[in-house]
């Protein structure tokens, strides 16, 4: 069993409009844009990162905004809900704020004993604010949102699957423990994790497979401390039969990827070197950072990207 994964590192989704996406996360949700860069495989598309002050692993939501991409179709074989942790007693504040900001499908529920507020993002993606105990993480107090009610990072994520047996086995191998079941949803948790340490598996045996597009989660990344731990995890996964990519340098972390039995794309990402490797923490996300191979084309790339603020 793998013992080096401590919870989530980041979640990466797709969007249809960069400016709208940036406004939603920095203004409506009050997260900090910690990096403004481009897609490694398509430098004409932004890669935007939002999180806490430093972009701490377990707090970072990232997006590829492909202009005018078709909206995704929800279904099985995907991450269906991204869950953010907020302080207990803060949901009334968020109810008022999200309502005033025009968030759609806004409603409350209770899952696994926790009060939650559910809503949709600008491309129809599903989010939940989950009241949770203080885990020592500090919220970024952007857009006038006080730290006492702010988002502290992820609490976890939910998958929709036709069958959960193989994914349950994989999560167990990755160090997650089965916690409890609520209806058709089973929760797994990393003991002593980083706060972003729960995964919920929902069984929808007759639902069609999802079609990726705007609002879809592209992949979900799990955190390990460093490259040495990552190599150990890679070997363990390959020894178990998974087809895992070589280590890829993503500038702010190193990454490996593999496809799960349920169809969800997993990444294992390192906590090193972090988002301050090329910017001072006080000025994260302010200027466009490019992978080295694209730097000679900066003028052309910048001219083709939509400014994020009017």
From TrEMBL:
Molecular function terms from GO: dioxygenase activity
Enzyme Commission number(s) of this protein: 1.13.11.-
Residues passing through the membrane, by range: none
Residue ranges annotated for the VOC domain, each copy included: 7-132, 153-271
Gene3D superfamilies in alphabetical order: 2,3-Dihydroxybiphenyl 1,2-Dioxygenase, domain 1
Coiled-coil residues: none
Pfam families linked to this entry: Glyoxalase
InterPro entries per UniProt: Extradiol_RC_dioxygenase, Glyas_Bleomycin-R_OHBP_Dase, Glyas_Fos-R_dOase_dom, VOC_core
Keyword Transport attached: no
Keywords: Dioxygenase, Oxidoreductase, Plasmid
Keyword Oxidoreductase: yes
SUPFAM superfamilies: Glyoxalase/Bleomycin resistance protein/Dihydroxybiphenyl dioxygenase
The name this protein goes by in its record: Ring-cleaving dioxygenase mhqO
Source organism of this protein record: Rhizobium favelukesii
Organismal lineage: Bacteria, Pseudomonadati, Pseudomonadota, Alphaproteobacteria, Hyphomicrobiales
């Amino acid at each position: 069993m793998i013992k080096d994964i401590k919870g989530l590192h980041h979640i990466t989704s797709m969007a249809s409009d960069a400016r709208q996406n940036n406004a939603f996360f920095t203004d409506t949700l009050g997260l900090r844009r910690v990096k403004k860069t481009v897609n490694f495989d398509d430098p004409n598309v932004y890669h935007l990162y939002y999180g806490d002050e430093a972009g701490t692993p377990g707090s970072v939501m990232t997006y590829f905004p492909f202009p005018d991409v078709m909206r995704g179709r929800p279904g099985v074989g995907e991450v269906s809900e991204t869950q953010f942790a907020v302080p207990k007693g803060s949901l009334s504040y968020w109810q008022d704020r999200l309502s005033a900001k025009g968030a759609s499908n806004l409603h409350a529920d209770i899952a696994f004993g926790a009060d939650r507020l559910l809503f949709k993002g600008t491309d129809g993606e599903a989010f939940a604010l989950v009241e949770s105990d203080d885990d020592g993480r500090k919220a970024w107090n952007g857009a006038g949102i006080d730290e006492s009610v702010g988002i502290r990072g992820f609490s976890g994520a939910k998958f929709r699957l036709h069958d959960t047996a193989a994914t349950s086995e994989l999560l167990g191998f990755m160090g997650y423990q089965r916690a409890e079941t609520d209806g058709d949803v089973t929760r797994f948790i990393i003991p002593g994790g980083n706060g972003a340490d729960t995964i919920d598996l929902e069984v929808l045996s007759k639902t069609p497979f999802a079609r990726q597009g705007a609002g879809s989660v592209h992949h979900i990344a799990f955190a390990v401390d460093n490259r040495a731990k990552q190599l150990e995890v890679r070997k363990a996964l390959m020894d178990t039969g998974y087809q895992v990519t070589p280590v890829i340098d993503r500038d702010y972390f190193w990454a490996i990827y593999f496809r799960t039995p349920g169809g969800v794309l997993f990444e294992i990402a390192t906590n090193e070197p972090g988002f301050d490797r090329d910017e001072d923490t006080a000025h994260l996300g302010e200027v466009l950072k490019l992978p080295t191979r694209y730097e000679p084309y900066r003028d052309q790339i910048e001219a083709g990207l939509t400014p994020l603020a009017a």
